Amino acid sequence: MLGLLPVAVSAAPVAPEDLFKLTFLSNTAISPDGARVLVEASRMNGPKNTYDRSIELVDVATGKLVHDVTKHLGDGDYDWMPDSRSFVFVRTVEKAKPQLYRYVLATGAIVQLTHVKNGVSGPVVSHRGDRIALTVTETDPDDDAYVDFTKAGFTPKSSEKKSDIHTIDTLFFQTNGQGYTYQQHQHIWTVAADGSHAKPLTSGKYSENFDAWSPDDNTILFDSLRYDTVDGGPSDVYTIPSAGGAMSKVASTLPANNGFFFSNNGRRVYFLSGDVNDAAEQRGLISTNLDGSDRRIVAAHNSISWGDTLLADMKEGGGLCGWPLPEGNFALLNVDGPGYANLRTMDLTSGTLHDLTPAKGEAWSCTVSRDGARIAYLYSDFAHPADVYVIDAKSGEPHQVTHVNEGYLAGVALSRPQEFSVKDPAGFTVQAWFMPATGGPPGAKRPTLLDIHGGPETQFGDTFFHEFQVYASRGYNVVYCDPAGSTGHGYAFEEALEQNYGDAMFADVQAVMDAAARRPDVDATRLAVLGGSYGGYATLWVIAHTDRFKVAVAERAVSFLQSENLAADFAGKNGLGGGYYTWGPPWDPASSDYAKFSPLTYVTSVHTPLLILHADEDTRAPIDQTLQEFTALKILGRSVVYVAVPNENHDLSRTGSPIHRVERLHIILDWLKKYI
Question: Where are the alpha helices (DSSP H) in 463-587?
Fold first, then answer.
């Protein structure tokens, strides 16, 4: 068990406003020679109520950091040229479309390379450095207004000549935080290194996502779904000559395929492949010839939890990074473990994984030098937000290169989570953490909060969580755990939730709180439960099945699975919890499991005072999910308050406007104080 961090005499409590003092890092890119790392830094700008994003340049040997190296806030989306003397990046100037620029390290010179009408993103430099792959997004023009202005008897303004009405004939037409996206089509282009000879490789109504250049730069690997579907997740892997020509599909026996990289000789491709009917499925890693022949299973289905899925309020998961290593038949990956995500090497012949970084903390955003000797990545743990680390691939010694939040951390009192575990009724081990209160009035027993994570196919773990530190500073113990359905704990544990959507989670969090309540520093008469997204669903489920919690906060919650699986931005045949594949058609009265596992079904049993918070532009959990629960509780005469946040989406707590993020924390704290 770990105790509290040493606290300086002058250490201050962690406050909601401390978000303005933190630097958030993302997107490392190590130079081919391994000497420098590019990283994007984001800082809250209070007066503008927005984020200042800049490109930082880090010297690996000295740790020297050049802030805002391109001297223009908002620059990003970068890649190194092979000689390590310059890099390309994307810049948006005023109201113009984003274009590609080049920065020369020796002189600081910046040159605009492209003038593409629709703008560019995602530059990836070829191995030789003579060409750059880009993505260009085309948007369908608006329809003419459905008005005969001659008959109407007036001349329309220019803004009235086009209609703002959307006529939609496909599913998955919108994306949380982006609005309507069905009119947008992302395509792959290439340009010469000087920005000339810009040409599209793909076109049409279907979008493409760039994956990799072949080692000889003659072929490009990409993903695309080139048919309409009622399932979320299908995609196919294609190759196309980088000089232009016909695309070729890499044949696969399964519908959900995402490209990864080429073999070192360029003759084979590696991709993740799976089905669409199991929400807990972990895709297998497949290797084939470029046409899909000679299919080999490198890693079996449901054997590896790929990428980084740890949740916190600094970001939402780090995603998957993966690179072939130049020596031997090996690759670098980041992989989830129980409560952590680390870097590992994989033998692409046997599928065997070996830890490269320790099995702790959260490692993501990995990139590799040309010779494979140095690997840069981001790393966070309980007591430290993300910094850039570099590891020597042979010695395996990680080295922290940046210390961007060191000054802030030295001045605040942090709580160090203490790990514990319980056995659930199904025999699984449930991992959990207890954060002792660091502030508040002195006393042996403290009010205690249970926070349940979203997803549910994500996990809590060893990473910095500002919000939890705020609660501890206000005198609350904080308990969090990875109940059934969480990633990083094996396929069987994820799958345990699918057929028992509310109860399996409930059994696990109850067992965790039973253990926590036995601690001498926990006041079991003053407990609260909180959660967002699936955690909001879980909060509603918990307070409908027990009265042990004196107060609750449910954010961006799901209350009624039937309408969620027909209205969310991901709504289709395989919606939340597997949707149709798990519980049958949501419109069929015989498919009673939608009601069985919906918190709204049990709303009459709710007696816990509830704060229910929702962002108005949330399409991941549409606003009706909160309104149904709120209205029902009001009709029943229960204590419930609805907080509506305008101009925000499902990711309010992670990427919302700075002022709303701070306001949200104060609103929650005021609600908790009122009851416990």
Answer: 466-473, 491-495, 503-517, 534-543, 561-567, 580-583
State the burial class of residue 72 (Cβ atoms within 10 Å of its Cβ: 0-12, 13-18, 19+): middle
Distance CA 338, CA 489 (A): 5
Instruction: Report the candidate in 560, 528, 541 with the shortest Cα–Cα distance to residue 627.
Output: 560
In whole angstroms, what is the distance from residue 508 CA to residue 349 CA?
Answer: 38
CA separation, residue 555 to residues 18, 178, 607, 614, 671 (Å): 22, 20, 18, 6, 13
Query: Per-residue pLDDT tens for 367-382?
Result: 999 999 999 999 999 9
Q: Tell me how far apart the alpha carbons of residues 89 and 614 are, in angstroms, rounded to a whole number.
A: 36
H helix intervals, 289-444: 406-410
310 contacts 320 by C-beta, under 8 angstroms: no
For residue 164, with 0-12 CB atoms within 10 Å meaning exposed, 13-18 middle and 19 or more buried, which class applies? exposed
Question: Can you read off the two tokens belonging to residue 665?
Answer: 């924390």
What gap in Å lies between CA 133 and CA 212, rounded to an integer?
Answer: 9
Query: Does the CA dihedral 593-594-595-597 come out positive or negative?
Result: positive
Angle at alpha carbon of residue 532, lines to 530 and 535, rounded to 5°: 75
Nearest to 273 by CA among 303, 246, 310, 247: 303
The SS3 of residue 167 is: coil
E strand map for 184-235: 184-192, 199-200, 208-213, 219-224
User: pLDDT digit string (tens) for 404-455?
Assistant: 999 999 999 999 999 999 999 999 999 999 999 999 888 889 999 999 999 9
The residue to which tokens 């799976």 are assigned: 274
User: Where do we find the tokens 């094996």?
Assistant: 490
Spatial neighbors of 415 by CB under 8 A, at least 6 apart, are 4, 5, 435, 436, 437, 438, 468, 469, 472, 473, 478
Distance CA 26, CA 78 (A): 12
Residue 9 confidence (pLDDT) above 50: no
Q: At what angle do helices 466-473 and 658-675 cross, to 10 degrees?
A: 40
How would DSSP label each residue in 342-373? Answer: EEEEEETTT--EEESS-SSSEEEEEEE-TTSS
Question: Phi/psi of residue 179, each to 5°?
Answer: 80, -150
Q: Which residues, at least 6 apart from 169, have a Cβ–Cβ distance to it below 8 Å?
A: none
Please classify residue 239 by burial: count the beta carbons closer than 10 Å to its beta carbon, then call 0-12 exposed, 13-18 middle and 19+ buried: buried
CB 648 within 8 A of CB 661: no
Are 75 and 62 spatial neighbours (Cβ–Cβ below 8 Å)? no
Position 7 scores a pLDDT of 42
* Alpha carbons 419 and 483: distance in angstroms, whole number: 14
Tell me if 639 sits within 8 A of 609, measured CB to CB: yes
pLDDT in tens, 442-473: 888 999 999 999 999 999 999 999 999 999 99
Please give the Cα distance from 319 to 28 (Å, whole number): 13
Give the C-alpha distances (Å, rounded to integers) separating 90 from 94, 101, 286, 448, 573: 13, 6, 33, 46, 37
User: How many other CB atoms are found less than 10 A from the CB of residue 294?
Assistant: 10
pLDDT value for 3: 40
Q: Tell which residue, 325, 376, 313, 373, has the closest CA to residue 349.
A: 325
